[in-house]
Amino acid sequence: MKKVTINPSTVISRLTLFLGVMLAVIFLTAFPSMSQSSTAPVNLGTAGNYVILAKTGLSTTGTTNVTGDIGLSPAAATYITGFGLIMDPSGTFSTSSLITGNVYASDYTSPTPTRMTTAVGDMQTAYTDAAGRTSPDYSELYSGVLTGQTLLHGLYKWGTGVSIGAAGVTISGKATDIWIFQIAQNLTVANGAIVTLSGGALASNVYWQVAGQVIIGTTSEMKGIILCQTGIAMNTGATLNGRALAQTAVTLNANSVIQPATVTAVKNNLLVPEKFVLFQNYPNPFNPSTKIQYSIEKPVRVSLKVYNLLGKKVATLVNSRQEAGSYTVTFNTNKSAVSLSSGVYFYRLEAGSFVSTKKLILMK
């Protein structure tokens, strides 16, 4: 019988390597939030010009409030219902009392049809890009149940559906971080759930690529760009800070949809807004609290105040110097120094020479 000689140092070396690999696997499984990958953003092309874009239909019931342009193609404008559209004399777009922006459809006057065809094509290209990203940082994380979790930047992949329960989920990271969620089935957001952005994370950098349906529950607060291969349905009172880009239909019911702040300039390795912008508050109407979002392109002293119809100040939300960036402020009437009744109010942003005023509605 041939004698086998075992080198102790070789055994120890191989054992050390094995234990190192096992510890790394255990560490990454137990602490998935440690990923530091750098994910490239999804290029929306001209689809990024629309806060809502669909192919087969757009409908709303109740008091909906949309900030940004909406578009439909190849379906005609007759498949946009509930908005009370008013055609512009140019015939290239229409308007609605429910929309701070314009409405575009495939059967409007040229050049709108061509632009809509391009936008829908860009939407589908963006979906394919997001769905085709490989080497995910996380696969099947939490078995698709994100309730109560904190998600750092990176590429996520699920071969199933994903759900967010009433306790919500937190997306945490810097303004330059990117999140892409690849979901093979439905995305379901429970009633009252809140998707919270923390640490400077921006809704414009969060992409939900969903092969199935997207269902956003009653009074829930959704954040991010939704790239859906089928339909998006928002239930009563739900809000979306982002974009709803669907390859079939988008259905609304007394919702608030606001486009995310645009950040394209880079200074000191940080994304900063390209201009001063004051967005429509969401939700609106509201009770007792609403959120007001604005962007400033350079350091400046900022004043954000709320007034009643008589021009009397009822709340000061911001009165300080701020750095360039995007900000969200909560206006909670329960914490107001004066008692406010139901009605129409105005909020006014002053940032250097930039001044903008918008209307909000308190409904008790």
Structural class: mainly beta
Q: Low-confidence stretches at least 5 residues in length (pLDDT < 50)?
A: 23-36, 263-270
* Count of helical regions: 2
**Main beta sheet:** 12 strands, parallel
Based on the model shown, name its key terms:
twelve-stranded parallel beta sheet; 364 residues; Immunoglobulin-like; globular; seven-stranded parallel beta sheet; 2 domains; 42% strand; single chain; mainly beta
Notes on the structure:
With 364 residues, the protein is mainly β. Helix content is 12%, strand content 42%. It has 2 domains: 45-258, no CATH class; 263-362, Immunoglobulin-like. It is built from 2 helices and 33 strands. The strands form 7 sheets. Strands 1, 3, 4, 8, 9, 10, 12, 15, 18, 20, 22 and 24 form a 12-stranded parallel sheet that branches. Strands 5-2-23-21-19-16-13 form a 7-stranded parallel sheet, with no helix packed on it. A 4-stranded antiparallel sheet has the order 30-29-32-33, with no helix packed on it. The chain is globular and about 55 Å long. Residues 23-36 and 263-270 have low confidence and may be disordered.
